[in-house]
């Protein structure tokens, strides 16, 4: 088992390997994380891990508010995640490489990172200025019939795109070349489909590529059918979630 310790960046969304993640970072705990990442030599990856939040707040409360106007704002690296942060996060996340980190004049950061490898969360350490985690790197196994399944998923995904474009009365880029590697296909489609965080998390932690593709095929067929029968209420609106502040 290969383990690694990395800074932890919890979000209300799921990151997949190969996908780009833009971040606007303003909380002090994550600014401290990025200042440390900037100390990494330029020829080495600036790695951190992204995990989806199961139970907690992406941005820690900074002022009293509902339901208790007398409640004190939370401080510290685990603010918003309760006394046991490990329980607040989904068990599988994604390591990320911050290709670009730019500090702005107000001390906040703009970050452009890319997901690299799935990781399993083993423990969380809240003793420093930001959360760190011990993680197990997860290999991506192809599973049975991943190739034919990827072809079926791509065909269904193109139909889904067309239905979604028609329902939203705007065009999606259908001329772009789609990959033929089953693993890449599975992650790209998982990220592109409009679904809630628990569904995307389920796809991320699938035991192998073939299992993920089978799940995606079921989801795409069901979603395309819904959009076809309810053109005035597209799936995008049915599954909309709040925009991430990070």
UniProtKB/TrEMBL annotation:
<dbReference type="InterPro" id="IPR003111">
    <property type="entry name" value="Lon_prtase_N"/>
</dbReference>
<dbReference type="InterPro" id="IPR015947">
    <property type="entry name" value="PUA-like_sf"/>
</dbReference>
<dbReference type="Pfam" id="PF02190">
    <property type="entry name" value="LON_substr_bdg"/>
</dbReference>
<dbReference type="InterPro" id="IPR046336">
    <property type="entry name" value="Lon_prtase_N_sf"/>
</dbReference>
<feature type="domain" description="Lon N-terminal">
    <location>
        <begin position="6"/>
        <end position="224"/>
    </location>
</feature>
<feature type="region of interest" description="Disordered">
    <location>
        <begin position="59"/>
        <end position="80"/>
    </location>
</feature>
<protein>
    <submittedName>
        <fullName>LON peptidase substrate-binding domain-containing protein</fullName>
    </submittedName>
</protein>
